[in-house]
């Protein structure tokens, strides 16, 4: 005697939801070009968190981890805004290499804890994007970060009433 589907609409919706959430038997994703740990690290250190976000988002989307890609985007945007505010209030004699080092530590931690080390990607059959594309992504991320930073500075100065 098998489980019979109910005529109750609520139960039918529950069965439908269970069927939708059941992972289909599908072949593994074909190999794709991903950013290496080194490329992500260089972009993070020299070009900032937005550049790292672009690389990580690309990697997670390419290996079909879209939920993680969305979390990376949301977290990066919040982190970038907070960082822009913190940078505004830092004293001028603050060591300039600390912020990129903190960014790098955070991003490499995310990369390595999610199986995005270059060795792992290559072992899975994926290849690495070219450095030209990686640097172009980094420069684009830096431009966007500068625009965000300028917007935050202008907003803070208007809120605090500091003359520009």
Can you tell me about this structure?
Strands 1-2 form a two-stranded parallel ribbon. The protein is built from seven helices and two strands, in the order H-E-H-H-H-H-H-E-H. The model is unreliable at 1-6 (pLDDT under 50). The chain is mostly helical and 164 residues long.
Quick take:
This protein is mainly α. It contains seven helices and two strands, in the order αβαααααβα. The chain is globular, with a radius of gyration of 22 Å.
Count the strands? 2
**Helix segment tally:** 7
Helical percentage: 55-70%
Shape: globular
The tally of structural domains comes to: 1
Strand arrangement, largest sheet? 1-2
Q: Mean of the pLDDT scores?
A: 85
Low-pLDDT regions? 1-6
Q: Helices and strands, in N-to-C order?
A: HEHHHHHEH
Radius of gyration: 22 Å
Task: Bin the strand percentage.
Answer: under 5%
Distance between the termini: 78 Å
- Structural category: mainly alpha
Profile the largest sheet.
2 strands, parallel
């Amino acid at each position: 005697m098998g489980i019979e589907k109910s005529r109750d609409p609520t139960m039918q919706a529950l069965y439908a939801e269970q069927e939708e959430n059941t992972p289909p038997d599908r072949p593994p994703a074909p190999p794709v070009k991903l950013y290496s740990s080194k490329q992500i690290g260089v972009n993070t250190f020299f070009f900032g968190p937005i550049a790292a976000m672009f690389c990580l988002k690309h990697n997670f989307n390419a290996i079909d981890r879209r939920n993680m890609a969305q979390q990376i985007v949301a977290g990066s945007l919040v982190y970038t805004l907070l960082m822009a505010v913190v940078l505004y209030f830092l004293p001028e004699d603050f060591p300039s290499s600390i912020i990129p080092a903190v960014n790098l530590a955070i991003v490499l931690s995310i990369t390595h804890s999610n199986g995005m080390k270059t060795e792992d990607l290559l072992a899975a059959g994926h290849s690495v994007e070219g450095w030209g594309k990686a640097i172009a992504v980094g420069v684009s991320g830096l431009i966007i970060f500068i625009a965000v930073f300028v917007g935050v500075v202008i907003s803070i100065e208007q809120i605090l009433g500091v003359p520009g």
